[in-house]
Design a protein that fits this description.
Strand order of the largest sheet: 4-3-5-2-1-6-10-11-9
Oligomer: single chain
Order of helices and strands: EHEHHEEHEHEEEEHHEHE
CATH class: Alpha Beta
CATH architecture: 3-Layer(aba) Sandwich
Strand content: 15-25%
Helix content: 25-40%
CATH topology: Carbamate kinase
Number of strands: 11
Shape: globular
Structural class: alpha/beta
Radius of gyration: 17 Å
Largest sheet: 9 strands, mixed
């Protein structure tokens, strides 16, 4: 078991994992080597006493948007339900990977799938967290036209998370796209208002406003760098933090 080296910066964390976390770079589907790597990092976090809930994306399997635009055969709402179902598939893979290495886990879905997942019930979710179980939250919000970013922000509010951590393939928030402008400025810390005034792309608009209105910090970091999730919950300078601090 890992030894805690410093106090936790956050006790209850909502971790948003995009679908691309579940596959190799620029590939689709599920790579169990990638899922296992993430599971091992999650185990290190849980061993520190963090209460961890995870919202999964599903873009590695299917994005509802790809069917909802330019096709009359599949209705937009149906396409979004297909995307939400993909998040359950990722949730199942992550659940088994975690349990294989001894991490107690519960999979909850906003879409009823009683044979494979519990329904999302806020009080039950919180109770699992209090007992040290990782709770994987799949199925988005159960409603179409809502992104998994927004689902993460809403669930963070419901479970009273201390922070929303968004694991991405970039190492923080930049003033411009760093691939287009190598001189773009990376922010270690930035306020909600500055993100809005500079029109920076952090999360989708609805998700961002949920966090801003309820003063839930957002931390953006690169999940591909080993140990970053643990460093973030221990309060180390990892990626970028958006909060209400205007200094």
């Amino acid at each position: 078991m890992a030894q805690q080296s410093k106090p936790l910066a956050y006790k209850r964390v909502l971790l948003k994992l995009s679908g691309e976390s579940f596959c190799r770079d620029r590939q689709g589907g599920i790579s169990m080597s990638e899922v296992t790597r993430i599971a091992e990092e999650i185990r290190d976090v849980v061993e520190q006493g963090v209460e961890l809930a995870i919202v999964c994306g599903g873009g590695n399997i299917l994005r509802g948007k790809q069917f909802s635009e330019g096709s009359d055969a599949i209705k937009p709402a149906t396409a979004h339900y297909m995307g939400m179902t993909a998040t359950v598939i990722n949730g199942l893979a992550l659940q088994d990977a975690l349990e294989h290495i001894g991490v107690a886990t519960r999979l909850q879905s906003a879409i009823r799938m009683d044979s494979v997942a519990e329904p999302f019930i806020r009080r039950r979710c919180i109770r699992h967290l209090e007992k040290g179980r990782v709770v994987i939250l799949a199925g988005g919000t159960g409603s179409p036209y809502v992104t998994t970013d927004t689902a993460a922000a809403l669930r963070a509010r419901e479970i009273e998370a201390d922070v929303v951590m968004k694991a991405t393939k970039v190492d923080g928030i930049y003033s411009e796209d760093p691939e287009e402008n190598p001189h773009a400025i990376r922010y270690d810390r930035i306020s909600f208002q500055d993100v809005l005034s500079q029109r920076l792309q952090v999360m989708d608009v609805q998700a961002f406003h949920h966090c801003m209105e309820h003063n839930i910090p957002i931390q953006i970091f690169n999940f591909q760098k080993s140990g970053n999730i643990l460093r973030a919950v221990l309060g180390e300078r990892v990626g970028s933090i958006v909060d209400g601090d205007t200094e």
